[in-house]
Write a structure and sequence with these properties.
The chain has 329 residues and is α/β, with parallel strands linked by helices. Helices cover 48% and strands 9% of the residues. The protein has a single domain, classed as TIM Barrel, CATH 3.20.20. The structure holds glyceraldehyde-3-phosphate. Glyceraldehyde-3-phosphate binds next to strand 8. Keywords: Lyase, Schiff base.
């Protein structure tokens, strides 16, 4: 990795990206998409070993990762108190003295991600911070509730104040190759979101093949997805590096052909700072610096921030603190 540029990317100004409007479903393009599984897996396997980022640059990448976290709680036992604590953490992800020492006062996470019932709590707790609230929707995580209820759920969440909606696609449309049905579903979800940005969760661990992941990514972008996201965090296999390569190359192809940049959100099971840095370095290599801003890249993660905080503390003091000192909720 180019360490000089790595530090520089932490301080790039935010740019407003024109929203992907989508396009007509182009089945020829969809069917032409392939994924060479062994080549993708070979490339992904080399990544963790060969990325070594040193000292100050490592801290800069970890701060960058924080700014891109959708700090998430999606548990059946979520409470108002837990969501308020999570929002306080999003506002101040790392101790102020540490942020001052690292030259990043005012750093926040990219968003807070919750279930519908917790939207108003999160909106209240984040008021004035500029941190958006993302809500999972459409019968998350399986997406098997009646279609009209899935659309209504989006509308309710937008009305409650969510700025971003994370929808789940119907995996069966991918598994049966019904691209028209997937496109129509995604189009309807995008329409229901209005001005709220929509992230399409593919649940890649349930799609059967990397080729299906590539095609589903493309169809969701054609239907107007603002982001494509790997997983709900509830599948048995969630974000992986091979899936990431396939999805970000689909994003690059879509940009090359349409001029629209779609965002990427790996989610589920990313809990270590060193893994986050590998993801960021891959994005930088395959998509470039522009995609390292929170409007185009997010980690969906419930516990990653705690590990980053520990690593930053170690960077500053030479000591590790106990994990329990970095509880999220
Ligand atoms: O979208 C976010 C995921 O549900 C979070 O997954 P995690 O708890 O494995 O970090």
């Amino acid at each position: 990795m180019d360490n000089q540029t790595a530090e520089h990317t932490t301080h790039l100004p935010l740019v407003t990206e024109p929203r992907n409007p989508g396009m007509a479903l182009n089945l020829d393009w969809v069917r032409a998409v392939q994924a060479n599984t062994s080549a993708v897996e070979r490339r992904a396997a080399t990544l963790p070993g060969r990325r070594s980022v040193k000292k100050d640059y490592q801290a800069a990448w970890m701060l960058k990762a924080i700014s891109c976290i959708d700090l998430t709680t999606l548990s059946g036992d979520d409470t108002v108190g837990r969501v308020r604590r999570l929002c306080a953490k999003a506002r101040q992800p790392v101790r102020t003295d540490m942020l001052d020492a690292l030259g990043m006062p005012g750093l926040t996470t990219g968003a807070v991600c919750v279930y519908h019932d917790m939207i108003t709590t999160a909106v209240d707790a984040l008021r004035g911070s500029g941190i958006p609230v993302a809500a999972v929707s459409t019968g998350f995580p399986a997406g098997l509730s009646p279609f009209h209820l899935r659309v209504a759920e989006i509308e309710e969440s937008v009305k409650a104040g969510a700025h971003e909606i994370d929808i789940v696609i119907s995996r069966r449309h991918v598994l049966t190759g019904d691209w028209q049905a997937l496109y129509d579903e995604m189009r309807a979800f995008r329409h229901a979101c209005g001005d709220a940005h929509v992230k399409a969760i593919l649940a890649t661990g349930e799609l059967g093949s990397l080729r299906n992941v590539a095609r589903a990514s493309l169809v969701c972008m054609m239907a107007g997805a603002d982001f494509i996201k790997t997983s709900t965090g509830k599948e048995s296999v969630n974000a992986t590096l091979p899936v990431t390569l396939v999805m970000i190359r689909a994003i690059r192809d879509y940009f090359d052909r349409t001029g629209y940049r779609v965002g990427y959100k790996p989610a589920g099971g990313i809990s270590k700072a060193k893994d986050a840095v590998v993801y960021l370095s891959l994005i930088k290599e395959e998509l470039g610096d522009r995609w390292l801003q929170p409007d185009l890249f997010r980690f969906g993660a419930s516990s990653l921030l705690g590990d980053i905080e520990r690593q930053l503390e170690h960077h500053l003091t030479g000591h590790y603190s106990a994990g329990y000192r970095h509880a999220m909720g």
